[in-house]
Design a protein that fits this description.
two-stranded antiparallel ribbon, 260 residues
Length: 260
């Protein structure tokens, strides 16, 4: 996204590094307050009605809303969030990661005015972080329940199916929040999705027209030259900053020199 690159050059020095750690620290504080009964569970929720009634400070507490679950599952959720967030920050840079989360919060705030009485938490905002990670690293493998190895792209697929189910069968609050979460994701990844879809259609058209006898290599890294045939487990992506359709492997998508 060229506009974010320009903003990064101008305002990047104001970005908050290690933002994920600060968010988890804030959530830990509020989780402790809830567990000890010193705060009501709704204290970190946001709703347009409460905001308009003068509780403006809620726009600052929603990023620190902790998971509403037992301690063991909360610790697992924080570990998972730290892994996703720190990896995104490492590959995007602190400024782009900050913008992604800030944009998600802003969209959530605006969307809440469509359902002003409904209390909103940051569950779907965390979901947008998960989808961003799964898009950039689809072959990343985790141990589900610490036992079952599964690639994160399949968990992302289940997440998308869950969102689709809520859009079709859920109530309006759930629909609005799903749209808010996916809007944040699409703003960042719509161009990449478009390029991948367009490239895929071109490859299908070539196969149908020319009917090659040998397998067509769809993806090749411009930097190191590896292909999906020589490295079948490698993830390949197209760089939206390069002038043309240049593909790169996972190891060079963020470190190559852009073609102008």
């Amino acid at each position: 996204m060229k506009i974010i690159d320009r903003l990064d050059r101008k305002f990047g020095r104001y970005a908050i590094p290690n933002l994920t750690i600060y968010l988890i620290a804030g959530q830990s504080f509020f989780y402790l307050m809830y567990m000890t009964g010193k705060l009501d569970r709704m204290a970190t929720y946001f709703s347009a009605d409460l905001f308009m009634s003068g509780e403006w400070w809620r726009i600052f507490t929603i990023p620190f809303d902790p998971p509403n679950s037992s301690l063991i599952f909360t610790l697992i959720a924080w570990y998972f969030f730290y892994m996703l967030g720190s990896t995104l920050e490492e590959h995007w840079g602190a400024f782009r990661y900050n913008v992604y989360l800030l944009l998600g919060c802003l969209i959530t705030f605006l969307a809440s005015f469509l359902i002003p009485a409904y209390p909103v938490n940051n569950t779907f905002l965390a979901g947008s972080v998960f989808l961003a990670f799964a898009t950039l690293f689809p072959e990343f493998q985790i141990l589900l329940f610490f036992i079952i190895p599964v690639r994160i792209k399949w968990l992302a697929l289940l997440t998308w199916l869950g969102y689709a189910y809520q859009l079709v069968f859920g109530g309006w609050p759930a629909r609005v929040m799903v749209l808010a979460a996916t809007a944040n994701y699409l703003i960042f990844f719509a161009h990449d999705i478009y390029l991948n879809l367009r490239h895929g259609k071109r490859q299908i058209a070539k196969k149908v027209r020319f009917a090659p006898r040998e397998e067509v290599l769809v993806h090749r890294c411009t930097t190191c030259g590896i292909t999906e045939k020589t490295h079948p487990d490698m993830d390949f992506r197209y760089c939206p900053k390069c002038n043309g359709q240049y593909g790169y492997c996972r190891d060079h998508i963020f470190s190559h020199e852009h073609k102008k």
